[in-house]
Amino acid sequence: xxxxxxxxxxxxxxxxxxxxxxxxxxxxxxxxxxxxxxxxxxxxxxxxxxxxxxxxxxxxxxxxxxxxxxxxxxxxxxxxxxxxxxxxxxxxxxxxxxxxxxxxxxxxxxxxxxxxxxxxxxxxxxxxxxxxxxxxxxxxxxxxxxxxxxxxxxxxxxxxxxxxxxxxxxxxxxxxxxxxxxxxxxxxxxxxxxxxxxxxxxxxxxxxxxxxxxxxxxxxxxxxxxxxxxxxxxxxxxxxxxxxxxxxxxxxxxxxxxxxxxxxxxxxxxxxxxxxxxxxxxxxxxxxxxxxxxxxxxxxxxxxxxxxxxxxxxxxxxxxxxxxxxxxxxxxxxxxxxxxxxxxxxxxxxxxxxxxxxxxxxxxxxxxxxxxxxxxxxxxxxxxxxxxxxxxxxxxxxxxxxxxxxxxxxxxxxxxxxxx
Length: 420
What we know:
Layout: E1 2-6, H1 11-26, E2 30-35, H2 40-45, E3 49-52, H3 57-61, H4 64-72, H5 75-101, E4 106-109, H6 111-124, E5 128-132, H7 154-183, H8 194-199, E6 204-206, E7 223-225, H9 241-248, E8 254-257, H10 266-280, E9 284-287, E10 302-305, H11 310-313, E11 319-322, H12 326-334, E12 339-341, H13 348-357, H14 372-384, H15 386-400, H16 404-418
Parallel strand pairs: 1-2, 1-4, 2-3, 4-5, 5-6, 6-7, 8-9, 8-11, 9-10, 11-12
Helix pairs in contact: 1-16, 4-5, 5-6, 5-7, 6-7, 10-14
């Protein structure tokens, strides 16, 4: 079977799909991943085929306009910005996808990746499977991860999913019109592809743990919570010698990093992190990521990195402070250490509240409300609370024994066999 995986977003969004691709390859299938040019090395080091979507996510997010939009935390403003970017790249992406899809037997994709790919797959008659890393199927059990987390009630919980799916669809509808016109297809219905996927009985695979989000009882047999899809560091990877020396020189430090979440004043954020570490009496490892923290002179108690594989680094930490992206949260939970989540936007607050409710981390600190005092307090609680540490350890063990990739591969193979 030749599988094409459409993966969009930052590194934390793409890595689970690389892990899924590796699982499929190990099962004897040929895999290509359609994603941003930023992740060509990530894909090829995993020995998977790379297909360029024709643009750089990092370059886009590093622009002043995007930094301002992301820092606002305004989800609708971010969606409108996405809509503009998707429309701008629609012609090139359509040409790329059409060529890449010609030999595919099956297409997999998540929220952003699949919306454009769905029309190409429809044109070529290729079956698709939805693969998501956060809940997107309506349920009464909780509200959409993309809505403000309020006590909506069971009926409004379900409605919030329909609302957010429409918002997401509207962000890509103009780009999809360009795609469908180029392919000679009629425009998608105003409500988008979700109902069509449901009518066609297309399965939905969720790459998160049942211990973190139990499958709601009102989901049907098409929804599968497989466990996380973890991408591990390559076996040939070795940590920098000076990082090893730093870790061995004292107590386990606290990790602070916000991944792809840049901001207009990374120096200020870095000073907040340094003061919080100092006030709480902790050593620290800061990850500059895509510009969220600045590389400034540091005390001897703090080490700066750009990026290190989370599966290697996080188990060596006393606690991890991060933005709450799905992939980073998964890595933090798997490591079995307390998490302090500072959500910026989107599903990050949802993961922050799940971690807190499960007792594996502190209450989330919204990015706009973060200061040295409340961050220092959260770090102190995370490092010193034995009940929280025990709960984090328990969850880490439960997650570690799940074979999310293996379960997903088995379901994909079963579905594909049923189509032929």
